[in-house]
Amino acid sequence: MQLAAKTDSTQPDEFVSVNQIHKDFGTGQSKRNVLSNISFSIKRGSFVSLLGVSGCGKSTLLQIIAGLLKPDGGQVALDRMPVNAPPFRMLYLFQQYTKSIFPWRSVTGNIAFGMESRKKWSRHEIAERCSELIKLVGLDGFGDYYPRQLSGGMQQRVAIARALACEPDVLLMDEPFSAVDAMTRSSLQDLVLKLWSSLGLTIVFVTHDIAEAIYLSDRVIVLHRSPSGVALDMYIDLPYPRNQLVTLDLPDFLKYRHRLYKEIYSEESTK
Ligand SMILES: Nc1ncnc2c1ncn2[C@@H]1O[C@H](COP(=O)(O)OP(=O)(O)OP(=O)(O)O)[C@@H](O)[C@H]1O
Ligand SMILES: [Mg+2]
What we know:
Layout: E1 2-3, E2 16-25, E3 32-42, E4 47-51, H1 58-66, E5 73-78, E6 81-82, E7 90-93, H2 107-118, H3 123-136, H4 152-165, E8 170-174, H5 182-199, E9 202-207, H6 210-216, E10 219-223, E11 230-235, H7 251-268
Parallel strand pairs: 4-9, 4-10, 7-8, 8-9
Antiparallel strand pairs: 1-11, 2-3, 2-5, 5-6, 10-11
Helix pairs in contact: 2-3, 2-4, 3-4, 6-7
Bound molecules: adenosine-5'-triphosphate and magnesium ion (MG).
The site of magnesium ion has 4 residues, from helix 1.
C-alpha cells in the first residue's frame, strides 16, 4: 500500500491541475467558505476519485474543474491551458444524469445530439459512430428505443455513450451510480472501467462510497468536511483489470478501506 503526502501537487505529468482553489458561497454575513486552498494534479490516463461526506464540496469542486463554476481564488488548467469555460476535451456528467438525456429522442438520437451540434462529422460518420458506441455500452438492439422504454441503468448507459460521442479526453462524473440498485451499480462500474482502459480516458469520479472509490480508482483524494481541503491523497495499488469477486476480497482492498474509513470517521467524530 502506497500513501502519498497529504497534499501531492508534484506529479510529473500535470494533465489536469487544480491549483489553490478557494470558493465561498453567499455574501456579507452569510458568506461561507466551502473550499479552501485545494491543490493537486492529475496524470493523463488516471482514474481519480474524490471522496468525502455529504456537503463537503465535492460537486462544487468538480464543477470548478469542469469550468462550469468560477472559483474565488486559484486556477484549474487542462494540459497547461487555464480552464475559464467548459473545454471541449472535458465532459461533465451531472449527479442525476439520466435527467440530461432527451425523452423525445431515441437512443441513437440522444447519442448523436452532441455530434450534430459540433458540425465536425458527416451524417454517415455520425450514424457509424452511434452504432459503435451503442455496442460499446452494451445497448445493441436498442438504438430505436426511447428513454421511457429503458431501465434506469440503461438510461445511464445512454448518457455515458452520449458523453463519449464527442471524444473527450477527460470525463468528470458526479456520483453517477447513486440512484441505481447494487447489481446495476456493479455492472456500470465495470462498464466505466472498460471504457476508461479501452479509450485511454482520464476520469475524475465523485463518490461518497469508499468501496466504490477503491474498486474503480488508481488514486483516491479525500476531502475534509466543509471548508474543504485535501485530507488524504492515496494511491490504490491494486491490479487492473479489476473484478467484483476477486478485487473486493484482496487483503490490500480491505487495508485501503480501513485507512479511508479511519480518515473519514475521525472527521465525523469531530462534528
Ligand atoms: N449555489 C450554491 N449556493 C450556496 N451554497 C451552495 C451552492 N452550492 C453548494 N452550496 C453549499 O456548498 C456546500 C458544498 O456543496 P456540494 O454540493 O459541493 O457538496 P457535496 O460534497 O457534493 O455533497 P453531496 O455528497 O451531498 O452531493 C454545501 O454546504 C452546500 O450547501
Ligand atoms: Mg454532490
